[in-house]
Amino acid sequence: MNTLAARAESFFELTKPRVVSLIVFTAIIGMFLSTPGLPPWRALIAGSLGIWLAAAAAAALNHLLDRERDAVMVRTAQRPLVKGDLTPGQVLLFALALAALSMFILAAFVNGLTAVLTFASLIGYAVVYTVWLKRATPQNIVIGGAAGAAPPVLGWTAVTGEVHAYALLLFLIIFIWTPPHFWALAIFRRDDYSRAQVPMLPVTHGVEYTRWHVLYYTILLFVVSLLPFITGMSGVIYLGGAVVLGLGFLWYAVRLLKPPSERFAMEAFSYSIIYLMALFAFLLIDHWLVRSPLDAALF
After folding, report:
1. Burial of residue 264 (number of CB atoms within 10 Å: 0-12, 13-18, 19+)
2. What's the pTM?
3. Nearest to 283 by CA among 29, 28, 22
4. Which of 266, 205, 215, 277 is nearest to 241 (CA)?
5. How far apart are CA 158 and CA 152, in angstroms?
6. DSSP, residue by residue, 182-217
7. Would the CA dihedral through 269, 34, 168, 282 be positive or negative?
8. pLDDT in tens, 221-251
9. Could you read off the pLDDT of 54-106 as tens digits, one per residue?
10. Which residues neighbour 173 within 8 Å (Cβ) at sequence distance 6 or greater?
């Protein structure tokens, strides 16, 4: 029994539950923002499940394809494949089963567009980013961030069956958020990435250069985060939340230029996660409490 429990825990760890939870959260927010009332239960439940399974499959494939580099990185040295708790064949079958089940659920119970876009995101992260971009360029996380920014679009299409401009605005927010989020982590873990020969920006261009780029992207993110209000997608409740959260992110980015300790980069990384979750929560709160003229026209 203990062996079975340990094996199940190893498979669960493959799915990167914290990362996948954030992905599904933003997808669900996309579902709720796409309609003036509650999303249809079928789209909400089947869409969330299908997107979760696809994200979990991508995470498992990432474990499989990165296992050699994971072995030399402190952050990833305890992953199941590295420790030998699972075999590559087991992980491959697990990932393919999750991916197949995801596509079936989305195609059969949601709609074809969501299934196609979800599959494209899975391939974008698990293959294009992990196999090629991650090893090819220090801009890997900038280009590869498109796959991670897709969930709110997937949630929107799960309900409406179409890609709306507002859904693309949600995509843009996460796309711009991704570089400062990951570069903060990369600054702290730069020795890991150097040993693994992954050309992350602090490895190829230095920490100082990366710190400035974190600031540049955070400024850009602050501007982009105001677009839902400017375009009429959201109202003043969201605007207030976006400004406060954005100023907090800017404080971390500026402080990161001359950090009080080496650990401060991880504090900035942790805040970036809180920032994104809170920003999307404000989008949802505003959506329910404030109806803009353009919302009324849309719905």
Report:
1. middle
2. 0.93
3. 29
4. 277
5. 10
6. HHHHHHHTHHHHHHTT---HHHHT-HHHHHHHHHHH
7. negative
8. 999 999 999 999 999 999 999 999 999 999 9
9. 999 999 999 999 898 888 888 888 989 999 899 999 999 999 999 999 999 99
10. 149, 221, 224, 225, 227, 279
